[in-house]
Design goal:
single chain; FAD-bd_PCMH_sub2; FAD-binding oxidoreductase; oxidoreductase; alpha+beta; FAD-bd_PCMH-like_sf; 423 residues; FAD; six-stranded antiparallel beta sheet
């Protein structure tokens, strides 16, 4: 096990000493020591989410899972995979591609994000419309509790439904309840064919966008994504500055072409359609997944970078993306926004002066509140996380979160103040 002196980081969530365990047993011993001696522990995987939550600049120990990686078991016939938590996501996808399978998730920065970090944050991308969230992909976990005890939740087969689904307790808990060491995931076959249809609304007619989206969602088509992209983001990805829908299909070739033909039959007037097939579709999404700031990399621009995750009722995504675009001029910011018409989740990337970024976040929070939605800050420099509540208002069921944290981690050593309400 490696042990290193550690330097501070502008995104916080660091540690005075960094340790790099290679086994679950080493992790257990580290946590036993910390729990017994009142030492706080911050967990890091690939570091891409270092700016997500956290009100402590540096814990006593930074527990890195960078050396806890590799495939434990792959049952090809059952389409399940058990893997160590520190394994980079794209490394897994490359391995599974050889077996004509994949994990049905599409996280940001897949070359660096670890499977453990993705599950701990319950991350998902535009293809959530068909794939679901990280929580939906998990069928079993091995977890080290703060006292060093190792537990297993779920199982290694898809049809494991006995008792309470303990996986849900840890997925999305931001590492505050235990250290994930192994994850068992259900897989899906690689699609035989895929395409990405870019439908650009050249006149920015939102009534037309809404009408089209409602008609398409009510059809029997099965898109993998129906993602609305703001003009500034569309310009970055396609070279054309229009509100654009990225409509993805994954199936056999005839089925994909049938759905493309259906799209052409209901294409609104004064719109432009571009179809990206196979490798071109993959390259589009590869670029898309590097839009947001990468928490493991230093920000060289001097500008403040922030990411806001917003959840609203499905078609209210149109209002959120439009409002985000309008804020560029009023707040002197570069804002790149996208949201799923079908699952209601939006991501807003803001870059500019710190005061303008904070003001824009507060404006969007108030705007979303009127829509009965929520807004969570997924990335922000540590110094600014002291000035604004990252998670927003505590939910009505916050007492449950607090009670579970107190029961599992009574000494509050694990990722303290990283989650909702300073848990």
């Amino acid at each position: 096990m490696e042990v290193k002196e550690n330097e501070g980081h502008p995104l916080g969530n660091g540690g005075k000493v960094a340790v790099y365990p290679k086994t679950e047993n080493e992790i257990s011993r580290i946590l036993q020591y910390a729990n017994k001696n009142g030492k706080t522990v911050s967990i890091v995987g690939g570091g891409t989410k270092r700016g997500f939550g956290g009100l402590i600049d540096s814990a006593d120990i930074l527990l890195s899972l960078a050396n806890l990686k590799g495939i434990v078991e792959h049952t090809v016939g059952d389409m399940t995979l058990t893997v160590k938590a520190g394994t980079p996501f794209q490394e897994l996808q490359r391995y599974l591609e050889e077996h004509n399978q994949k994990i049905s998730l599409d996280p940001a920065w897949p070359d660096y994000a670890t499977i453990g970090g993705i599950i701990a944050a319950n991350e998902s991308g535009p293809k959530r419309l068909a794939y679901g969230s990280a929580r939906d992909a998990v069928i079993g976990l091995r977890v080290v509790y703060p006292n060093g005890k190792v537990i297993r939740t779920g199982g290694k087969v898809v049809k494991n439904v006995a008792g309470y689904d303990m996986n849900k307790l840890f997925v999305g808990s931001m590492g505050t309840l235990g250290v994930l060491t192994e994850i068992t995931l259900k897989l899906r076959p690689l699609p035989k064919y895929e395409s990405n249809v870019l439908l650009s609304f050249t006149e920015g007619d939102f009534a037309e966008m809404r009408s089209f989206a409602a008609a398409f969602l009510d059809s029997q088509m099965e898109p993998v994504s129906l993602e609305l992209i703001s003009p500034s983001l569309a310009e970055k990805l396609t070279g054309e500055k229009f509100y654009t829908l990225a409509i993805s299909f994954e199936d056999n070739e005839s089925s994909v072409h049938y759905q493309e033909s259906f799209l052409k039959s209901i294409q609104p007037p004064k719109t432009k359609m571009t179809i990206l097939a196979q490798e071109k579709a993959r390259k589009f999404w590869q670029s898309f997944y590097t839009i947001s700031p990468n928490g493991r990399a230093s920000n060289q621009t001097g500008e403040t970078e922030a990411v806001l995750k917003i959840g609203v009722v499905n078609l209210d995504v149109l209002k959120v993306i439009r409002e985000s675009h309008l804020l560029q001029d009023t707040h002197n910011l570069l804002i790149e926004a996208h949201g799923g018409l079908g699952h209601g989740l939006c991501q807003i990337v803001l870059r500019g002066g710190s005061e303008n970024v904070i003001s824009a976040i507060q404006h969007l929070r108030n705007f979303v509140k009127e829509l009965n939605g929520y807004a969570v800050i997924k990335h922000l420099p540590f110094i600014l996380r002291q000035k604004i509540e990252v998670w927003g208002e505590n939910p009505p069921y916050f007492f449950l979160f607090k009670g579970i944290k107190t029961k599992i981690d009574p000494n509050n050593i694990l990722n303290p103040k990283r989650f909702v309400g300073g848990i």
